[in-house]
Specification:
300 residues; mainly alpha; two-stranded antiparallel sheet; 59% helix; globular
Length: 300
């Protein structure tokens, strides 16, 4: 590849997420604070890989399979007018709750509760929705957790054992409890089954609108090329029943193409700089053999 390719790839990828404040801008004001998970957690390691790009897209697709969740997004979100802003805010929430100190975790949760407070209405099938309702919140939270786990297990550089997968789900349940959502499945298998077999999952006009938007976002051409391969890689990991609910089908060769794109991102970007910042905040050494990207203002 030509000189500077790492910088170009990194700039294209990270530029999508610069439409919200850096959630760890003040993380070194909380030296020694391990946050909700800490250096020895599975969460810090699992979320650090470029496979998380697939996980983030997958979570949006899976969330749309619940008609009341999709209606809440369609009726109250500005994703059509400000897609990169919503993407950046979601990424900031995930970063803060994963790698932030406890004050940063609590601040992120406060923002979510404030934003969700007015989100209520009636879906196309005449059912009431309320973003503060524990079951509706559980669908969103569990879709995120299952999606990041599925993406890492399918597209990560090393296998994720069943024990580590279950530990990750248990760690994320602590976050779900702070959000006030339920139910929170105990194991990775139970989590996957809860989503795949959920009785609420069904097609809806709001889901169709969201999926149409996700299939054709307004992105620069080179970024769009990579994005579509990541999206189809995400679709390939979604259970068939949920695929049918949102009207998508896996493309032939989607997983190899996804692995190729993730491999380029991994080679260009290294592991998450948020992980590096969190380790440094806690006074912990960086794992041997792991390369981190350190943009100004992320780590010292």
């Amino acid at each position: 590849m030509s000189p500077g390719w790492r910088e170009r790839v990194t700039e294209s990828a990270t530029g999508l997420f610069r439409h919200a404040p850096n959630p760890l801008a003040d993380t070194f004001d909380h030296l020694g604070d391990p946050g909700l998970f800490g250096p020895g957690s599975v969460t810090w390691w699992l979320m650090s890989d470029a496979a998380a790009f697939v996980g983030g897209i997958r979570s949006l697709l899976v969330q749309a399979a619940h008609p009341e969740v999709a209606a809440g997004v369609g009726d109250h979100s500005a994703y059509r007018e400000d897609p990169l802003g919503r993407l950046s805010r979601t990424a900031a929430y995930v970063t803060a709750t994963t790698y932030g100190s406890l004050p940063e975790v609590n601040a992120a949760l406060t923002v979510v509760r404030t934003v969700h407070r007015p989100v209520s209405g009636i879906s196309h099938r005449g059912l009431a929705y309320d973003a503060g309702e524990p079951g509706m919140g559980a669908w969103v939270h569990n879709a995120l957790v299952d999606s990041f786990l599925s993406a890492r297990r399918t597209y990560g550089p090393t296998p994720v054992s069943d024990a580590d997968a279950d530990a990750y789900v248990a760690e994320q349940a602590r976050l779900g409890e702070r959000l006030g959502v339920s139910p929170l499945p105990d194991t990775a298998a139970e989590l996957s089954a809860w989503l795949a077999e959920h009785p609420a999952a069904a097609p809806s006009p709001a889901a169709a609108d969201a999926i149409a938007f996700l299939l054709a976002p307004r992105l620069p051409l080179p970024t769009r090329f990579a994005y579509h391969r990541l999206l189809h890689a995400a679709v390939a990991t979604i259970p068939p029943r949920l695929q049918r609910a949102i009207g998508v089908r896996p493309h032939r060769g989607a997983q190899p193409a996804g692995r190729a794109v993730i491999g380029v991102l991994r080679a260009a970007m290294g592991s998450s700089p948020a992980w590096a910042a969190a380790l440094e905040r806690c006074g912990e050494p960086r794992p041997p053999g792991v390369r981190f990207r350190n943009p100004p203002g992320t780590t010292r």
